Amino acid sequence: MQVIGDTVGIDKSTVSRCVNKVSKALASKSDQYIKWPSEQRKRDIKQGFYDNGGFPGVIGCIDGTHVRIAAPSSDEPSFVNRKGFHSINVQAICDNEGKFTNIVARWPGSVHDSHIMRCSQISEHLEQAHKCVEDGLILGDSGYACRSFLMTPYIRPTEPYHERFNTAHTRTRCCIERTFG
């Protein structure tokens, strides 16, 4: 805040108020832009992911990213992530166009991606709604637990088809990495 204030020539508290107002305005609009896809949209997403990476049936790719924050005054150690800085671990799912379809942004930096997924409403929704592969798959990295709706790569592939799976998985899942930037 201090650097921004110095650069623009305004007080740090003014920068803080502006950031707070903009953040609240964006959050109030999030439901208009971040929404789980309809059945028709899922079909389009599956085709798009297949065209992009060769992995069939994918409706989203999931990952977490750490958003750096100032050290909080309460429960400070839980916000220190594995890289040693204070953060919020933000979990997101994106579609084949890099549009967010789900975001969870409330966990301290020390919390593992797989725990955030396990505790999320989207996990509960997918657990109940996912009856078969045709319902769609989410691709995650090896930090996630493989589930009926969440595919992760083979850790140590031993067969050629494991390698092909991992190659298609990586080509398809990189969409979330690009979305985060």
Automatic annotation (TrEMBL):
Domain DDE Tnp4: 62-181
Keyword annotations of the record: Cytoplasm, Hydrolase, Metal-binding, Nuclease, Nucleus
GO molecular function: hydrolase activity; metal ion binding; nuclease activity
Gene Ontology cellular-component annotations: cytoplasm; nucleus
Localization per record: Cytoplasm; Nucleus
Coiled coil regions in record: none
Domain of life: Eukaryota
Protein name as annotated: Putative nuclease HARBI1
Main function: Transposase-derived protein that may have nuclease activity. Does not have transposase activity.
Family: Belongs to the HARBI1 family.
Cofactor(s) needed for function: a divalent metal cation
Organism this protein belongs to: Mytilus galloprovincialis (Mediterranean mussel)
Broad class of where this protein is predominantly found: cytoplasm
Pfam families from the UniProt entry: DDE_Tnp_4
Alphabetized InterPro entries for the sequence: HARBI1-like, HARBI1_animal, HARBI1_dom
Phylogenetic lineage: Eukaryota, Metazoa, Spiralia, Lophotrochozoa, Mollusca
